[in-house]
């Protein structure tokens, strides 16, 4: 059974950094795109970043461009989201998902990891 497990969330002050990990088990992300989404309380789940199957193409939401970096380590079956210059508005539960392309359809989702940025 394919599973995606996010980790690395936590509480950080504004301006700080966190690195989220999305580890796949029971299946592979090698030939798939992987995306990160986030959902703040009372809001819809929003796209954050995506990376294609080979790792040489990425896409970011305007709100995180220049601050977040997505990367993929196929041998480790893991995708990372490096988040710098964090803002209180980045506070949300962050989810990773396996997809068939950047901004395409998705088949598996993780359970999410909480990121809280204090002002």
Written description of the protein model:
The chain has 119 residues and is mostly beta strands. The protein contains no helices and eleven strands. Strands 2, 4, 5, 6, 9, 10 and 11 form a seven-stranded mixed β-sheet that branches. Strands 1-3-8-7 form a four-stranded antiparallel β-sheet, with no helix packed on it.
Question: Outline of this structure?
Answer:
By secondary structure, this protein is an all-beta fold. Helices cover about 0% and strands about 55% of the residues. It starts with a strand and ends with a strand.
How many β-strands, per DSSP? 11
Which runs of at least 5 residues are low in confidence (pLDDT < 50)? Answer: none
Order of helices and strands: EEEEEEEEEEE
Largest sheet: 7 strands, mixed
Counting helices, strands and paired strands, the structural category is: mainly beta
**What would you call the quaternary organization?**
single chain
Cα end-to-end separation: 40 Å
Q: In angstroms, what is the radius of gyration?
A: 13 Å
Percent of residues in helices: under 10%
Strand and helix layout:
Elements: E1 3-7, E2 10-13, E3 18-25, E4 33-39, E5 45-51, E6 58-60, E7 68-73, E8 78-83, E9 92-99, E10 106-109, E11 113-118
Parallel strand pairs: 2-11
Antiparallel strand pairs: 1-3, 3-8, 4-5, 4-9, 5-6, 7-8, 9-10, 9-11
List descriptors.
seven-stranded mixed β-sheet; globular; mainly beta; single chain; 119 residues; 0% helix
């Amino acid at each position: 059974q394919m599973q995606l497990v996010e980790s690395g969330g936590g509480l950080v002050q504004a301006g700080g950094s966190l690195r989220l990990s999305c580890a796949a088990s029971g299946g592979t992300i090698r030939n798939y795109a992987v995306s990160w989404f986030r959902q703040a309380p009372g809001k819809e789940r929003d796209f954050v970043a995506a990376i294609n199957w080979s790792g040489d193409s990425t896409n970011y939401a305007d709100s995180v461009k220049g601050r977040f970096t997505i990367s993929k380590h196929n041998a480790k079956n893991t995708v990372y989201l490096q988040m710098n210059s964090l803002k209180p508005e980045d506070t949300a539960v962050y989810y990773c998902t396996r997809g068939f392309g950047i901004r395409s359809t998705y088949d598996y989702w993780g359970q999410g990891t909480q990121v809280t940025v204090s002002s």
